[in-house]
Amino acid sequence: MNALENLIRQLSRLPGVGAKSATRMAYHLLKCDESYNEKLSDAIGTIKEKIHKCSVCGSYTETDPCELCSDPKRDHTLLCIVEQPQDVMTIQNSGIYNGMYHVLGGAIDPLNGVGPEDLSFRELRERIKNGSFSEVIIATNPTEEGDTTALYIRHVLQDTGITVSRLAAGLPIGGDLEYADRLTLARSIKGRVSF
């Protein structure tokens, strides 16, 4: 195997990148100037030593605790529970939420051998016990695994006196009904609000 084939093979291992995309990326890198390739190589090579999980929320960070957990301007009475670290960035980019986060590290998925003990529920219980949260927002994905995880979270928090809410799910703004799948449409109807 030559260097180009090896690069294509390594790039195709990235999520969402097939052989064609990996090939396009490899040929693009061949056209780039050497300084760009060195910077990219350095960024990839040092990612594991520079970035780690926040000891408080479980999101990825270079400082511990992360900038969000150590920000005194954030609302420390709100806790948003997400499945993955990238979900924190997605919600942050919306600019609408200013509370704290807790990253579970996945969703309960018994078919693939992932139970509550494999996720950060122990840490969640400790945070709830030692924190001053008045509301927990469950922001798991609208999938069977996400729904199972949300129900488990609700069960874990049922005797805490904390308000538990879940992100609304339904039709996207600008979407057409004819293109909505049955599950999305069912969630939209069940989650309807007064108008």
What can you tell me about this protein's structure?
42% of the residues lie in helices and 13% in strands. With 195 residues, it is α/β, with parallel strands linked by helices. It has a four-stranded parallel sheet. A two-stranded antiparallel ribbon has the order 1-2. Strand 1 and strand 2 (60-61) form a beta hairpin.
Count of alpha/pi helices: 7
Fraction of helical residues: 40-55%
Overall spatial form: globular
> For the terminal residues, how far apart are their CA atoms?
63 Å
Oligomer: single chain
Biggest sheet overview: 4 strands, parallel
Overall strand count: 6
Radius of gyration, whole Å: 21 Å
Order of helices and strands: HHHEEEHEHEHEH
Strand content: 5-15%
**Low-pLDDT sequence parts:** none
What is the structural class?
A: alpha/beta
Average pLDDT metric: 92
Spatial arrangement of strands, main beta sheet: 4-3-5-6
Any key phrases for this structure?
globular; 4-stranded parallel β-sheet; two-stranded antiparallel sheet; single chain; alpha/beta; 6 strands; 195 residues
